[in-house]
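for ur thesis appendix - Lipoprotein. copy paste whatever u need, i formatted it the way the template wanted (i think)
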Amino acid sequence: MIRTISGIAMALALLAVAGCSTVTEGEYKSAQVVLKESGTTRRQITADCIADMKRESAADKANMAAFLGVSVARLPAAFCNRIVGAMADGRLSHRDIFGAQRNGNYAKLITVLRG
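the 3d part is after this line
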């Protein structure tokens, strides 16, 4: 069961980060509950996110690191801990992520990512 929930939460987290708009509010809230209640799942999702971030191009990592205000070496952990943590503790809602795509207001997402 946890493995299935973990997969769902990971998929939702990655969709959110990738800017995909197909995640429903209910799915997002379910993923938030899993992230909040399961430290094991949260750590695994964060580790998977970090592994994915490490595969980004050097140019993309440099740009993202500058945007987040961290070194390139620190980028994967900083980005993933911030986004997964904000999803888990409710600082980033479905509206914050997916509503921003519709209205162009990324202020909350930017605030969270910049730490």
